[in-house]
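quick one before i forget lol
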Amino acid sequence: MGNTKAIIVGAGIGGLAAAVSLRRVGIDVEVWEQAPELKAMGTGISVISNAVAALQLLGIDLGLGTIRGAVGETAEILNPKGQTIVTSRASDIFKSQPGAKTVCIHRGDLQAGFLEASKGTPIHLGAVASKFERDGKGVRVKFKDGRETRGDILIGADGINSTIRSQLHGASPTRYGGFLCWLATVPFKHPRMTPGWSGQYWGTGKRFGLHDIGQGRAYWWGTQTMPEQQARNWKGGKRELARAFEGWAPETRELIEITPAEDIVTVPSQDRPFIERWGEGPVTLLGDAAHPMLTSLAQGGSSSIEDAVVLASTLATAPDPVRGLRQYEDQRRERTRWMVDTSRKLGVVEQIENPLLILLRTAFLKLTPKGKLWETFERAGTLPPINTAFKLQTASEA
């Protein structure tokens, strides 16, 4: 793979993870991002133990849980009034991945960690990809402002509305997940929010999440089941949001009240039907461009980090780059298909509106042995075996 050049379209979490990972195995990288600047945007994100373990394989230290984010310690599911239904230690949920903690973090902090680790990587901003073309054994990418670049391989890491995916598979609308999401981060102190605490309050067609992300900050989110058109054209403000959670636990109402309206991100839940073939020739997809999923497994960002490390492994050990891309896709297909499908099924259970089914859901949560209750999340949080038969570059070489 000496002198192999990879073009990465997209500088989100997946694109930056790919840039850092590929450089660690000696592949030249350049990143092209449509945003005019890389700002600390977004809200919170969970870096689950499988992603932390993947980064450890390549010796990538982002300071997760030390200088960035908060290590998950306790996870609770509560009712709308704040009464605990089930509680567990995070180490019991992800017990099959010892030594790899789960970390809740602000997206901007995670981005900063990857940018620090990718120091020296060319990152071109304001670059909106228009199309790619096969160019001999490589690929050429053209951008709307007239710029273009050429490399041996192209990685589309440009999100759920990926231009690279659309050229490969045709443009199509996203698939609605059944509910609207509100998300924000804010400085917050509360007796319930102990260090590393994560709580989900489950109601009737509504949920509220509260997570410690370190440095005295909370990441919170709310969901409400509603018709697709209403969610995609939501015009409500804080008053409507507060009304949706009226009568819920005091800390949930306080969070909504203290968060500036302009800091609340509102987005319909969405994913895409899984595609079996991600790329062709010298082109592939990664992260949300390949397998966007609902939030129920909290694996959107973590699966893209896992993608990046598997991609680095296959490119570093394959006889040629194109075969490396196909091996990457083959290794990721079954696991990510399961994540997409499972996240959607869990979303249905989480957003139940039928009172009888809610009673059954609560009984299931209370009575099921914890090992059985959390086995789906443990499966997601356990990194599959990855071929590490390659030489890592030192930080200075990368």
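fyi DSSP finds 13 helices and 18 strands in the chain.
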